[in-house]
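Researcher: Here's the sequence for the chain we discussed earlier.
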Amino acid sequence: RVFKKMCLDGKISTYIGTREFVDHVGHIDPIAAVLLIHEMDWFTENKEYKVYAEITATFRYGRDDLDVLGINFKKDLYTDAMQVYPVKGVASCTTKIQEKLLKKLGAERAFPFTFDLPAGIPSSVTLQPVKNDTSSKPCGVEYCLKTYIAKDMHEPPERKQVVDLLIKKITHAPDTQAPQPYIESAKNFMMSLTRSTSRLDLIRSGIFTVSLFTSTLRWVTSRRGQLKSSDSL
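Model: Thanks. This is the structure I predict for it:
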């Protein structure tokens, strides 16, 4: 299966074999894609325009409707970009799917490109602030592969000449389970002689995508010294 997306004005398309890239702890699968140029004559006449590719990892910690005074509730964790067309040097295929796409689409109009993510970069996470809320963009870490037409890499492109593909970085979960994870925190208050302690325990160390899990929160109040616990899903 191959994923394809075309820009609004129909000049370029991006092909990618998978939208999920696995972190094997020792290495991360390369993000291998192919650019297809539909209107090669237009680029021949407008040689100042080039095609660039960009991969961005973004941490979103607030809804879009909360953005006020130009403050965005998101932060770019990682960004890398390259020029895909005209080709600088020799464009080589790193995966078999790229080789098959080049044979099918034609080497004259198709150009492969690859991004290698650095070690330690976070995996994709989706956090829905409100249950069953589909009106706003969820919080979490998201990855976007973008190809666009511009005169310069740092020049904002026109929206109709951009191809955005959302992809996911997932982590390989080993079969062996580590000890049950927990985190503990203690805080002193100004008007209290004792401190309040809280501890959060997860039911297991490995949690798979789209799976429910239970966490236990233990809280020792500073005034009564009583232990309170609650389970959350």
